[in-house]
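Students often ask why we bother encoding 3D structure as a string. The short answer is that it lets us treat folding as translation between two languages. Here is a chain of 148 residues written in the first language.
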Amino acid sequence: MIIFFLAWGFFAAFGIMLLVMGVQKLLAIVMLVYLSLMAAAMICSTLLFGVKVDGDSLKLRTRLGRKYEFTLSDIRKVVCSKNSSIKYGPRYTVIIRTDDREIELMKSMKGFKEMCGYLLDRHSAGELAASAISKNCAATLKKYSQEK
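And here it is in the second language, the structure alphabet:
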């Protein structure tokens, strides 16, 4: 996200410079409109996504604004994964799977630690199916929820 806005800022400054200098005004206007639309789409998708917990119900709003709701008993599998990338480094995710939905939560998201703790607590309380979280995933969730 930071890389996107750095690149966006560079091209926006370039477009403004072209516009001020009077060179290629049409190109500068088209580029600035395009960059503004891209930035608005990135910001809106980030602001729209959300997960709320209300008792044993999870309410999800996707990046496109669609709303879904499911209960803890609908959760079939919780998968903890680590994907390594040369460019971005390790990326830790928790994937919550139901019969017809899949939610991917990344460690960089606000509330990730709390959600890991919530899933672990509900699993140990028996509200989640025993097979929903493996022993390795439970250990990973515990590690995530205790990080500072």
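Translate back mentally: Strands lie at 50-54, 57-61, 67-71, 77-85, 89-97, 102-106. Keep this in mind for the problem set.
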